[in-house]
Amino acid sequence: MTQQLVLYPLLLQLFLSIILMFSWKRISWQRVISILGGILNLGVSIWLFAYIWENGTQTIQAGNWEAPFGITFVADTLAVTLVLLTSISGVAVSAFSASSIIPARLKFGYFPIFHFLLLGLIGAFLTGDIFNLYVWFEIIIISSFVLITLGGEKAQLEGAVKYFTLNILASMIFLTAIAVLYGLTGSLNMADLSIKVAAIENRGLVEITAILFLVAFGIKAAVFPLYFWLPASYHTPPSAVSAIFGGLLTKVGVYALIRVFTLIFVGDVFMQDTILVMAILTLISGGLGALIQTNLRKVFSYLIICHIGYMIIGLGMYTEVAIAGTIFYLIHDIVVKTNLFMVGGLIYRIKGTNNIKSLGGLYAEYPRLSLLIAIPLFSLVGIPPLSGFWPKLSLLNAGFNDQNWWAMGAILFASLITLVIIAKVWSNVVWKDKVELPKRINFRYFENLNKTRKIQLVAPIVFLSLISLYIGFGAEHVQQLSTRVAGELMDNQQYIDAVFKTGQNLKP
Amino acid sequence: MEIVLAIMIGILYAAGIYMILRRSLVKLILGIIILGNGANLLIFLLGRITKGSPPIIPGDLKVFEAAYADPIPQALILTAIVISFGLQSFAIILIKRAYKVVKTDDLDEMNAIDQDS
């Protein structure tokens, strides 16, 4: 009973997608099923998280095949934390989609595909098998292709071509890397690989495999210089889709990087330096890119890239404090980025445009809503005590311990640029005098929506803002969680023992 | 046999990447397909090629005694082929739609989204 608990979030999403496919034409049912299912999934994820928190890493072997032979699912603290965050973002975006996605799109299976996407994400976080990870990645990208093209507007299709090409190229490189790794070790289980890769004498080939993995996951995670597909595509689909993409899709690349470089390719100084350089350049180029954009959602797209740097930089420094900072940032970023794209969608719904030059006067019209929008925006900058501040503190601390002035400089620079950008967005969108815009015909403005729809648009933002506030004000708990995750990642013997059931004392 | 396959995989990768770098949408898809085939063959090659010895234990034995063909790479390739088949069919529909809407198959002209809206 409790052993199968690991699979419950996965099975629930699969079940939901199937139910939703059976109610293909009934959009109003789909809305209800998706939101209720999301809440149920949140409950199950909290249950799984609490169980892992109490009892340590749990594993389940598919078909009861012993560890290196069968497919293993591993629920360690990092995996369940990310599953929990996926569920939180998932339920918020479900509710937001129910109101903001137009019925024409919903009729073509938006919700079933959306839940397949969540299924892929949860699977990718829980699996302990490198080829299985590839399969989950494919489920994620095929669902995201459908979501990004659904509706078939010109901009969407153009963005989709770029998104599609780069993502499929990343998959091919990932597959190549798996092939080389299998040729080297004859194994696919990540815990087994961890032992076998350490024993390989031909380090040159191991390094090349590591670089293949770095490039493959680097494209998915959008790090410098592999990120160009992201600003070309993320602003084209409806904002609910951008929200789930921005919140979770790049983060699954970051997760894969963290997993592979803390478990399989450990202690390779050259790779760590490479990651560090990429991270510093990501922070700088993403920040500078965001500075010159005028479309709100493009600004947020570049900010995604910029802040991926924070997560990779901790991995590059590779100390326990730095990894803890990375994990904390990951937790904070998933919530805030999902929220920001929904805020972008809400502003679009109110004003009919996302160009910050034409926006303005939001505070005069909707003062309470503006205060709400302030929470995700300023959490992103990391004004203490909001949530972005604490992980940056950890990362700076780690940089200081290493005497790594370049990394510290990049962190501070990106922080400053984010502040400038958010100040620009805030003053242009909220404080600036209202710009008279021509009324768009056939566009459903926020003020014309009925009350349920309005609540459905605002409630997810409130929900995620509250979680952001909790991450900021309850930073002690999140820090405790990240430190524990970092401890587990640095000491990968725990993971291996849990998979092979060798150690009896799995409790940390 | 290995050397022939290795050269062929190299050619497939090179051809695939070359095609992806072209500006035409159709060549892009061809490149992706060729690259996918190269990756599949690479898994096959790296799983060590063994001829004429299926991985079936003879009835009177408990374990393998002679060398046998590793079944895992074949299972992996099968999975990868199915996945890439799905993705490629999606890709073909996508470029057809993109061609209809954007009215060009030149990737350099697909830059409407880079201009500010």
What can you see in these coordinates?
The complex is a heterodimer of chains A (508) and B (117). Helix content of chain A is 76%, strand content 2%. Chain A has one domain (4-436, 445-500). The model of chain A is unreliable at 503-508 (pLDDT under 50). Chain A has 21 helices and two strands. By secondary structure, chain A is mainly α. Chain A starts with 7 loop residues before the first helix and ends in an 8-residue tail after the last helix. Chain B is mainly alpha-helical and 117 residues long. Chain B has one domain (2-50, 69-103): Orthogonal Bundle (Helix Hairpins). Chain B contains three helices and no strands. The model of chain B has no long low-confidence stretch (mean pLDDT 85).
In short:
The complex is a heterodimer of chains A (508) and B (117). Chain A is mainly alpha-helical and 508 residues long.
**CATH top level label of chain B:** Mainly Alpha
- The secondary-structure class of chain A comes to mainly alpha
Structural class of chain B: mainly alpha
Query: What's the SSE pattern of chain B?
Result: HHH
Largest sheet of chain B: none
Biggest sheet overview of chain A? 2 strands, antiparallel
Assembly state (oligomeric):
heterodimer
- Poorly predicted parts of chain B: none
Strand content of chain A: under 5%
Beta-strand content estimate of chain B: under 5%
Task: Please supply descriptive tags for the structure shown above.
heterodimer; A: 508 residues; mainly alpha; two-stranded antiparallel ribbon; 21 helices; globular; B: 117 residues; Helix Hairpins; 3 helices; elongated
Which helices and strands appear, and what pairs or packs with what?
The complex is a heterodimer of chains A (508) and B (117).
Chain A: H1 8-22, H2 27-55, E1 58-61, E2 72-75, H3 77-100, H4 103-106, H5 110-126, H6 130-149, H7 154-185, H8 190-199, H9 203-221, H10 229-233, H11 239-264, H12 269-291, H13 296-317, H14 320-351, H15 362-365, H16 367-381, H17 389-401, H18 405-431, H19 451-473, H20 475-490, H21 493-500
Antiparallel strand pairs in A: 1-2
Helix pairs in contact in A: 1-2, 1-5, 2-3, 3-5, 3-11, 3-14, 3-19, 5-6, 6-7, 6-11, 7-9, 8-21, 9-11, 11-13, 11-14, 12-13, 12-18, 13-14, 13-17, 13-18, 14-16, 14-17, 14-19, 14-20, 16-18, 16-19, 17-18, 19-20
Chain B: H1 2-21, H2 25-46, H3 71-102
